[in-house]
Amino acid sequence: MWQEKENKLYKSFQFKDFKEAFGFMVKVAFTAEGMDHHPTWTNTYNKVEIWLSTHDAGDIITRKDRELAAEIDKLTG
């Protein structure tokens, strides 16, 4: 479940290993590029953390963030 923190949507994902986490990041990258909306994220071994906000709207949560969050959720099946 995405959480609202400091005007950003946040979610942490945990995977079996680094390879699985990185594969997920590649899928997110293609999805985000297709939507022209890019996340702030980190990856440490099997954990990926994502923060979404719309920079050109003043770093607040907008419809674009909610739409990208929904697409990211579809990638985790």
From TrEMBL:
One of its GO terms (biological process) is tetrahydrobiopterin biosynthetic process. The keyword Lyase applies. GO terms for molecular function: 4-alpha-hydroxytetrahydrobiopterin dehydratase activity. Keywords: Lyase. It is an enzyme of class 4 (lyase). It holds the Pfam family Pterin_4a. Its EC number is 4.2.1.96. It comes from the Bacteria. InterPro entries: PCD_sf (IPR036428), Pterin_deHydtase (IPR001533). It catalyses: (4aS,6R)-4a-hydroxy-L-erythro-5,6,7,8-tetrahydrobiopterin = (6R)-L-erythro-6,7-dihydrobiopterin + H2O. Belongs to the pterin-4-alpha-carbinolamine dehydratase family. This is 4a-hydroxytetrahydrobiopterin dehydratase. It comes from Hufsiella ginkgonis.
